[in-house]
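Hey, resending since the last one bounced:
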Amino acid sequence: MKRVWVFLLLSGAAATAADWKPLFNGKDLTGWKMAGPGGFVVEDGMLRTKGGMGLLYHEGEKFGNATLRVVFKTISGSNSGVFIRLPEPPPDAWYGVHNGYEVQILEGGDDWHCTGAIYSLSKALRGFQKPSGEWNTMEIVLKGQKTTVFLNGKKVNEFVGSQPVPERKMWYEPVRGPRPDFGYIGLQNHDDKSTVYFKEVSIKK
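The structure tokens again:
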């Protein structure tokens, strides 16, 4: 009987692992395409930001009603982001800001611009990001117009596309308006002084 339980537990763990589909293979940029300057390099099985401002997007398919998992670490408070709900392949680096949502990666920043915030639209709970140089796990749950963000196992943000948002004041803040239920996803390389590493980008439908 004990062997049966062990088998069932191992089978369940294998099934759970199989639910996650890696979008980054740890070897190269197969399936990804760059928009804008700068770029990403593959270094020791990880994606590393280089220069900017740019947007590396997964060109395979649009995603909706799914969970996106990103494992990352920042170096000295570096800036980056995860783009979701992009209606079309981005032609330039700013397309993701104004046509999708940017889930912020930034060790500092205020509630509207810290890790887990939907940049300038929905603030996040702070205090759950690990220190510079340590790995963090962010899970972004897409369900219809609802976006829920978990950081290191803690729910830090929930946003519905129709909810009120702050008035747009600066040109670089996202254009307000609805985003699609399904869209492309991407990663931001923000500037030449920011270095962020990604060792996992996976999706579970």
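The domain at 2-204 is CATH 2.60.120.560 (Jelly Rolls).

Sorry for the duplicate.
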